[in-house]
Amino acid sequence: RAKDMGRNTFQFYQPEMNTSVGARLNLERRLRRALRDGEFLLHYQPQVDIESGKIVGMEALVRWLDPEVGLVPPSAFIPVAEESGLIGPLSEWVLREACRQNKAWQDEGLPPARVSVNLSARQFQQRDIAKLVTAILEETGLEPRYLELELTESTIMRNAEEAVVMLNELHALGIGLAIDDFGTGYSSLSYLKRFPVDRLKIDRSFVSDIGASSDDETITSAIIALAHSLQLQVIAEGVETAAQLDFLKERACNEMQGYFFARPMSHEAIAGLLQRERVAA
Ligand code: C2E
Ligand code: MG
Ligand code: MG
Ligand code: MG
């Protein structure tokens, strides 16, 4: 029996279980260290007005520069950060850094653009998010209209009544609000009308199948029409081809974001892009 075998019992446990729990704890420990030692950084991906072709915003996307591994994408650590409570301090860092950087660009004379920050479900559940945003805007001096928060459809719909209250609080600050990954959840239209949001982001899964799946084309067209009928702006994410862009343009989609225009990039690189626009203007 395992108990009788003393110290060697671990070898009778499910090995996958051992490694996954061990790996998780190890990751958690390294994430803690990453926060303490400043190993996180933001990449920025341009959001472009389809009509004018100008950069009007950028999405801040977090990365972890792990000294042992290199650049780690958010999918590899956000879930663990969410489960371990590290998402609070991490999100706060992202928000502060995005606001600080955007204000610094404006102070350098670059054309002003909004910065969009992803808010995790866990952080949205914390009732003091509006207070935190207020404090960070004050501290960094960024005007509220140059900050937008992205919340996924499923985050908002998880508790829609509560979401209405919190979105109203956030909206009252004068910041923008966008529903991310739109079309993958199940918003009811009656709620959509009550959410004080400014923008719908069409999920990449629909956009990527433009030209390949008529169902996804129909869904994309319907989301654009829905947004317009509710007086909302609409942006397509994951635009990778000229054909996709043409399709969106024909339907008067307002903005696009995707590899076709630019990949997420360092703060230096996007400052260079913004600078070029200023020179061209
Ligand atoms: P998201 O908010 O939907 O962000 C868009 C993701 O799509 C980004 O992946 C971006 O690099 C990728 N993408 C953009 N254009 C294209 C394209 O044309 N083709 C393809 N194939 N992909 C494209 P990334 O940076 O790996 O981020 C993944 C997700 O991680 C984000 O999805 C967001 O949910 C989450 N995330 C990123 N940064 C943060 C953060 O600071 N806080 C929180 N809570 N979540 C974050
Ligand atoms: Mg997003
Ligand atoms: Mg998205
Ligand atoms: Mg997405």
Automatic annotation (TrEMBL):
Domain of life per record: Bacteria
UniProt keyword annotations, A-Z: Membrane, Transmembrane, Transmembrane helix
Residue stretches making up the EAL domain: 24-278
Protein name in the entry: EAL domain-containing protein
Organism name: Trinickia fusca
